[in-house]
Design brief:
By secondary structure, this protein is mainly beta. A five-stranded mixed sheet has the order 1-9-8-7-6, covered by helices on one side. The chain has a five-stranded mixed sheet with strand order 22-23-24-25-29, with no helix packed on it. Strands 2-3-4-5 form a four-stranded antiparallel sheet, with no helix packed on it. The protein starts with 11 loop residues before the first helix and ends in an 18-residue tail after the last strand. One of its GO terms (biological process) is protein localization to phagophore assembly site. It is found in: Preautophagosomal structure membrane. Keywords: Repeat, WD repeat. GO terms for molecular function: phosphatidylinositol-3,5-bisphosphate binding; phosphatidylinositol-3-phosphate binding; protein-macromolecule adaptor activity.
């Protein structure tokens, strides 16, 4: 394999220089992690990548829209990707517009698309009833030349992939592998409890990296700080972890359990509980959690069909809940409708349900469908994408709260929402 120099994560141009070197290599990089989950790969054998595909097909989708196997935002929520039964599409979020489309001529489905900001480098995993690639392989795809430039192979199904400019993180059902992006060398592996959702979050802009994932016990979170080389275990919930997210600076971590009633916010440095908010009283499946860029708000989507926005009080949150932060907040915000129950003054007398912090704003969606949330570029806006092809952009009032205002709606699988003839994938970071 041709030796390539490691990219400088602070210099996007060096990253593209690195990828150009990798592209010129005479062989496609392969790697097998040295453990029981790995699969032997012969570097001299031909790659499982199909031959280069023709240029992006600008024709419309047929009357029957393709099935959606995967939806995810990129690192700064500026765009999102959809893995389909015939390829993948990428869209800009704010404002909404088609960004890129790749059809694979019905050769197979894409079950996972991991974007690297807005670069032409992404990772693909096959999915659906007829996957384009094995569900046990991560294919590193370079869109500028429409070809695979590397692959990672395993014996277990790949559940998730996270990307930084210097790292690739691959999540398996009970293990996580961390690789150098430059040479695909394994630098760390982590054992987890059974993790069918592939839960894992990393800091994408801060350096060194912080990684959070399920621990080895039910309800436990593991925090890996690669700067201090410390591992912190946090008992976040009594039941299994269902969802998690981190702030961009990796200081705050939000988690939800399979019960779906409470969302807890932790300090990643010491594992202390900073805040607890309540989605509702009924059991629910939490689909996604998202912090705003300023860490003042937290959005939550669930199978109940309501997106909630909670106020995150980082300053007052530096006190633990044991110091009665809820009571203090209730006295200063009594009956103001901004998420603190007016009955909090009776904390210790009434059940905990009545002293919970409630959402500031809500947006109603069809119940039972899977939606993912992020905060938009405009102030106090939320972006919602659904597995039915729906795209919403809403705005909430931080003062009066209540129902959010819908600003925008699109069906992103609509035949009009695609690139025009001659438009190409941007080659910018």
């Amino acid at each position: 394999m041709t030796t390539v120099s490691s990219p400088n994560p602070k210099n996007p141009n060096s990253f593209f220089h690195f990828m150009a070197q990798l592209h010129r290599s005479s062989t496609i990089p392969h790697h097998k992690p040295p453990d029981s989950d790995s699969e032997t790969v012969n570097p001299s054998s031909s790659s499982t990548c199909p031959p280069p595909f023709p240029p992006c097909n600008p024709t419309q989708f047929p009357a029957s829209s393709p099935s959606i196997y995967h939806l995810s935002f990129n690192q700064d929520n500026g765009c999102f990707a959809a893995g389909l039964d015939n390829g993948f599409c990428i869209y800009n979020t704010d404002p909404f517009m088609p960004f890129f489309r790749r059809d694979f001529d019905s050769r197979g489905g894409i079950g996972l698309v991991a974007l690297l900001f807005r670069s032409n480098i992404l990772c693909l995993v096959g999915g659906g009833s007829d996957p384009l690639y094995p569900i046990t392989k991560v294919m590193i795809w370079e869109e500028h030349h429409s070809r695979c430039i590397g692959e990672l192979s395993f014996r277990s199904e790949v559940k998730n992939v996270k990307l930084r400019r210097d790292r690739i993180i691959v999540v398996l059902p009970q293990k996580i592998f961390v690789y150098n992006f430059a040479d695909l060398k394994l630098v760390h592996q982590i054992e987890t409890t059974l993790n069918p959702k592939g839960l894992c979050e990393i800091s994408c802009t801060s350096s060194p990296m912080v990684l959070v994932c399920p621990g080895l016990q039910k309800g436990q979170i593991r925090v890996e700080n690669y700067g201090s080389k410390r591992t912190k275990f946090v008992m976040a919930h009594d039941s299994k972890i269902a969802c998690m997210t981190m702030t961009q600076d990796a200081r705050l971590l939000a988690t939800a359990s399979c019960k779906g009633t409470l969302i807890r916010v932790f300090n990643t440095l010491d594992g202390s509980l900073l805040q607890e908010v309540r989605r509702g009283a009924d059991r629910a499946e939490i689909y996604s959690l998202a912090f705003s860029s300023n860490a003042q708000w937290l959005a939550v989507s669930s199978d109940k069909g309501t997106v909630h926005v909670f106020s995150i009080k980082v300053d007052s949150g530096l006190m633990s809940l044991a110091n009665d932060r809820l009571h203090t907040a209730a006295e200063t915000n009594n009956s103001n409708g901004l998420g603190i129950s007016s009955l909090s003054i009776l904390k210790g007398v009434l059940p905990k349900y009545f002293s919970s912090e409630w959402s500031v704003a809500q947006f109603r969606l069809p119940e039972g469908l899977q939606y993912f949330v992020a905060f938009g570029r405009q102030k106090n806006t939320v972006v919602i994408i659904g597995m039915d092809g729906s795209f919403y952009r809403c705005q909430f009032d931080p003062e009066s709260g209540g129902e959010m205002t819908q600003l925008e709606y699109h069906n992103f699988l609509n035949s009009n929402n695609f690139l025009k003839q001659g438009e190409t994938f941007p080659n910018t970071m």
